[in-house]
Amino acid sequence: MAKVRHVVGLVVLGAVVIAAGTVAARSAGGLQEMPTPVASSAAPTPTATRPVTFGVVGDSITAWAGQEAGSWTSYVDTAALFTEQGWAQNGAPIALMEANTPRMSADVLVILAGTNDLGGTLTADTKLDLIDSIVEKSEVDHILISSVPPLDMNPAWSTAWNRELEQHAAAEGYDFVDSWVNARAADGAFIPGHTVDGIHPTPGAAAQAAAVIGRAIVSAGE
């Protein structure tokens, strides 16, 4: 069941800044460019009576402006309608997400956070408290916490954080979705061919994740 919160206030459109990620892959010319979107064979999101609207808070895995090929938001079926409410920035740690979270009027808030904090100094409890603050600031009724994608440089970090997220979601009454189940190998790393740099998904993997997230959005918004 989604955690229900009283909603007040008006929509505030979150700023999206395309900035260098703290753990993003670099080449001699800077950040590796994301490839052009490709068609996906991922199953469509189940049809709802009307589109369930959703906002987001996240990092480069979510940030949509100017890098649509790498953002899962580009591939969500129309049964879940992205309102472009929220905030997402390349390289953003959870604390920066929390500081920039606006109020939203979407049916569901999707939080995909923590990749840029993996291996950092913040404790799990501190990061989870920041996620709770994101929830409070958004004033959205239904909260969907997404797993983070694999991290090839240290799969144990992403695996452990996803476990913390799932347990916290259960304790707080949020919905949880393992968005990257189709891109993750048994050892916790990306399945070969599902990542462009060991951190970011390929367009195909992003589309697979979007199909999983889209179904969870519709379910959370019911």
Description:
The protein has 222 residues and is α/β, with parallel strands linked by helices. It has one domain: SGNH hydrolase (Rossmann fold), CATH 3.40.50.1110. 27% of the residues lie in helices and 16% in strands. It has four helices and eight strands; from the N terminus they run E-E-E-E-E-H-E-H-E-H-E-H. The strands form two sheets. It has a six-stranded parallel sheet. Strands 2-3 form a two-stranded antiparallel ribbon. Strand 2 and strand 3 form a beta hairpin. Helix 1 runs parallel beside helix 2. The longest helix has 19 residues. The protein is globular, with a radius of gyration of 16 Å. The N and C termini lie close together (10 Å). About 17% of the residues have low confidence.
Write the layout of secondary structure elements.
Blueprint (H helix, E strand, L loop, with lengths): L15 E2 L8 E2 L2 E2 L20 E7 L21 E10 L4 H7 L7 E5 L11 H15 L3 E5 L8 H18 L2 E3 L25 H19 L1
Parallel strand pairs: 1-5, 4-5, 4-6, 6-7, 7-8
Antiparallel strand pairs: 2-3
Tag the structure with descriptive keywords.
alpha/beta; Rossmann fold; two-stranded antiparallel ribbon; 8 strands
Brief digest:
The chain is α/β, with parallel strands linked by helices and 222 residues long. It has helices spanning 94-100, 124-138, 155-172, 203-221, and strands spanning 16-17, 26-27, 30-31, 52-58, 80-89, 108-112, 142-146, 175-177.
Helix content: 25-40%
The shape, in one word, is: globular
Count of helical regions: 4
Major sheet description: 6 strands, parallel
Span between N and C termini? 10 Å
CATH fold-level topology: Rossmann fold
Give the helix/strand class. Answer: alpha/beta
The CATH H-level homologous superfamily? SGNH hydrolase
**CATH 2nd-level architecture:** 3-Layer(aba) Sandwich
Beta-strand proportion: 15-25%
Which quaternary structure do these chains form? single chain
Text of the CATH class: Alpha Beta
Mean pLDDT: 82
Strand order of the largest sheet: 1-5-4-6-7-8
